[in-house]
Every structure is written in structure tokens, then in C-alpha cells.
Write a structure and sequence with these properties.
The structure is a single chain. This protein is of the alpha/beta class. The protein has a single domain, classed as Rossmann fold, CATH 3.40.50. Helix content is 28%, strand content 28%. The chain has helices spanning 32-51, 68-80, 96-101, 117-121, 172-181, 195-204; strands at residues 6-9, 15-19, 24-25, 57-62, 84-89, 128-132, 135-140, 153-158, 182-190, 206-212, 219-225. Strand 6 (128-132) and strand 7 (135-140) form a beta hairpin. Helix 5 crosses helix 6. The chain starts with 5 loop residues before the first strand and ends with a strand.
């Protein structure tokens, strides 16, 4: 997917890439950091933690994109001293040069962590790395359809491009695969609130919740494996 990308500044001052050919951006134009924290860190990671305060959280992310959500989760895990095993899938990784163009390193200069964003972004793919004492990370260059792990997960960040750009990732089969990959009471969370996706989740066996969305989006979805 070697499409031309254009850097844009979102409404919270953080940047992202826009792919005009797909009519998609990597993050919300209403705030890249705001959206990532609101949906995935707060309604996903922190929600699961409240139910499981003494457990290691095994997270699957689809897809890695700019690495912003992964890094924000690392910061939250470090702050809460919460152990996380994080697996992120990305079929078409950005280059280190592209990621540096976004300037995320400048956003986190005051963060209390042992690794800055640019160093974090340069960690190896397709191998287990330990960027902090609380965070184990594996970035895999693979399509979700081809991903067949031997372990289960507690939380899935589902952040594929929209159905108009990647319809193959929003069908019932993918929702059922997510259900099968999650542990009991596992959580699936996404910016997407389409009725067809919610119906697919319900058909796969999830209990779904429509939640208030981040700025610029009326609703989002969270689903629990019941």
C-alpha cells in the first residue's frame, strides 16, 4: 500500500498522515492524541484494568500505524506500574523517516519514561523487545487475516482503516476471529460505531456497548466476550 501521504495538524495540535486516495487519515482530524487516549487507553486499557487490577494485560493492536497508541499505552502502563504484553500488527509499516516527520517525540519530552518516542519507533520488528520493565512488545509485519497466534489476548485495539478503504477487515469473519482470540471477559474496542459492525460483533458472541465518542465523533464501540 504505497500511497502518497500528507502530514496534517489535528485540532489538538498533534499531527497525523492523510491518504487522499483512500479518503482516510491515520488518526482523527479532531485530535490524534486525544482520540487515541479517549478510545483505546481510557475506554480500552483503563476499563480492562479496573476489572483486572492484579493481572498482566495482553493486548493485540490492529494496526500499528504511527505507533502513537502503542506508545501512549506504554506511558499509561508505566504510570500505573501495570505489566503489559503488547502485540501489534501492521501490514504496511511506515518508515522511520515518515514517523519522525510527525514530530511525536516533541509531544512527550516531559513524560516519565525511560524511552523516548523516536527510540521506541526504531525498535525491531518481528521479535520480542522490552522497552520498559512493564512493557513487552512484539510488532509484526503481517495482515490480520494471516495472523494465527498460539496465545489468547485480554484486549483488542481494533483500529483498521474504515470499511470504505478496508472492507475485508470489518466483516463477520473478522469479528468472529477477534472473539476467538480473546480470553473470557476480554474486551474489543474501536472508533467504529457502524451498525453492521455492531451486528457482526453480536453475531460472533460479543455483548456490545455504544459509548459516547471522542471529540468529533458521536459514538464508539466497546464489546465484551461473554
Amino acid at each position: 500500500m504505497n500511497y502518497s501521504k500528507c502530514k496534517i495538524i489535528t485540532k489538538d495540535g498533534s499531527s497525523t498522515f492523510r491518504i487522499d486516495r483512500l479518503k482516510e487519515s491515520y488518526h482523527s482530524i479532531h485530535g490524534a492524541v486525544t482520540e487515541s487516549n479517549f478510545i483505546y487507553v481510557n475506554e480500552g486499557f483503563n476499563f480492562w484494568n479496573l476489572q483486572n487490577p492484579n493481572k498482566t494485560c495482553r493486548i493485540l493492536e490492529l494496526g500499528y500505524g504511527t505507533g502513537l497508541m502503542t506508545y501512549l499505552t506504554l506511558l499509561e502502563a508505566s504510570k500505573k506500574r501495570k505489566k503489559v504484553v503488547f502485540t501489534s500488527l501492521e501490514a504496511f509499516p511506515l518508515t522511520n523517516v515518515e514517523i519522525e516527520i510527525l514530530g511525536y517525540n516533541n509531544l512527550f519530552q516531559d513524560s516519565n519514561t525511560t524511552i523516548d518516542f523516536n527510540t521506541f519507533s526504531q525498535l525491531s520488528w518481528d521479535k520480542l523487545v522490552l522497552p520498559t520493565n512493564f512493557f513487552k512488545l512484539t510488532k509484526k509485519q503481517i495482515r490480520f487475516e494471516d495472523f494465527n497466534p498460539q496465545t489468547s489476548f485480554d484486549l483488542i485495539y481494533y483500529d483498521a482503516f474504515g470499511a470504505h478503504a478496508q472492507p475485508e477487515l470489518w466483516n463477520y469473519e473478522c469479528m468472529k476471529k477477534c472473539f476467538d482470540l480473546l480470553s473470557n471477559k476480554g474486551v474489543w474496542v474501536s472508533y467504529c460505531a457502524k451498525g453492521s459492525v455492531r451486528r457482526g460483533l453480536n453475531e460472533a458472541g460479543f455483548s456490545t456497548q455504544r459509548l459516547p465518542g471522542p471529540p468529533g465523533k458521536r459514538e464508539m464501540l466497546r464489546a465484551i466476550k461473554s
